């Protein structure tokens, strides 16, 4: 008997997707190891920070359908652990009334019977004070949307995983993967053998995948997470039910902005630009481009008159983008016992519980609960490189 530990499943990466996948595997009685390169909790990937938006408002039906069940799964976790992870605020979606993206979101909401309120120019400020609706923009509120308490959610799901007997090893970086019927995973601290491997390494996905002969067309960008100070304290507060908001892309790609009510830092509203500049995930802090902040300053000055148009706090986070901004949820093309969850393209947090369920199903060889064709690796065709 060698000293190498053996598992039914090893999951690499304890961000939101790896943590929910490990939890689902443990619920399915799999002896599961969750490996994380940094000491937990950490702020070096994509899942840190106190808040994320949860919404059903999407351009595509398949996301709205997945969110129907996902809300249930978030609520189940809240009950199971006895913690509050979601607060309903609504999501105000705004965009050029006749633009394709705005209309797609509006019709997806209607078709799927998501409770909404359509605002007019006349009643807008009565419902949403301290906000200027841009000329020509339409506005619809997804009532079901709100804020997820992200850090708390991560801690909770990791805790539940451990209660189920799951093992987390943090400060243990995966250095090598040897695919095969039994996969060998070598870390900075040990060697593990596992029947099944799940790779949920966020911005580091391609680094890990290079050991398996695969490279995906992923782009890692740094996001400046900006907080803006209220002129009158409380005017954009979550307690006053100020909603989350999202601008759909119009003619001007400039208007790709979203915000959350003031919550985690009293008196500060989180407003970010939904794009950033390319970065190496290990050199994130060397990326100092602030052109997104200029765009945000102009927007805040124009549309949010109750905020000081200069960020009071700027933090950092990363997106891992696919060319079409849809996720990668698939088996490895050459090794069916390796499953990949990657490319969450800056909108994956809210899906954590359903991603965990789907990656667990893929890993166990079960038929996935949803049509995963939008998320298959084969859609990239020529862009998928062999790393061998
Ligand atoms: C500013 C910002 C705002 C966002 N807002 C929203 C929102 O409002 N709503 C929403 O739904 N989504 C949002 N997102 C997106 C969402 O947060 C991400 O899609 C999600 O967190 C991705 O999770 P992940 O588990 O794939 O990646 P990560 O959280 O990065 O997890 C990957 C983990 O793998 C670990 N790892 C990597 N390599 C190794 C290795 N070799 N060995 C061991 N461990 C390794 C990393 O350290 C990391 O902990 C936002 C993202 C950002 C950055
Ligand atoms: O996923 C989300 O809801 C947010 C808002 C839009 C841009 C990215 N994340």
From TrEMBL:
<dbReference type="GO" id="GO:0008115">
    <property type="term" value="F:sarcosine oxidase activity"/>
</dbReference>
<dbReference type="GO" id="GO:0050660">
    <property type="term" value="F:flavin adenine dinucleotide binding"/>
</dbReference>
<protein>
    <recommendedName>
        <fullName>Peroxisomal sarcosine oxidase</fullName>
        <ecNumber>1.5.3.1</ecNumber>
        <ecNumber>1.5.3.7</ecNumber>
    </recommendedName>
</protein>
<comment type="function">
    <text>Metabolizes sarcosine, L-pipecolic acid and L-proline.</text>
</comment>
<dbReference type="InterPro" id="IPR036188">
    <property type="entry name" value="FAD/NAD-bd_sf"/>
</dbReference>
<keyword id="KW-0285">Flavoprotein</keyword>
<dbReference type="GO" id="GO:0005777">
    <property type="term" value="C:peroxisome"/>
</dbReference>
<feature type="domain" description="FAD dependent oxidoreductase">
    <location>
        <begin position="8"/>
        <end position="362"/>
    </location>
</feature>
<comment type="similarity">
    <text>Belongs to the MSOX/MTOX family.</text>
</comment>
<dbReference type="GO" id="GO:0050031">
    <property type="term" value="F:L-pipecolate oxidase activity"/>
</dbReference>
<dbReference type="GO" id="GO:0033514">
    <property type="term" value="P:L-lysine catabolic process to acetyl-CoA via L-pipecolate"/>
</dbReference>
<keyword id="KW-0560">Oxidoreductase</keyword>
<dbReference type="InterPro" id="IPR045170">
    <property type="entry name" value="MTOX"/>
</dbReference>
<dbReference type="Pfam" id="PF01266">
    <property type="entry name" value="DAO"/>
</dbReference>
<dbReference type="InterPro" id="IPR006076">
    <property type="entry name" value="FAD-dep_OxRdtase"/>
</dbReference>
<keyword id="KW-0274">FAD</keyword>
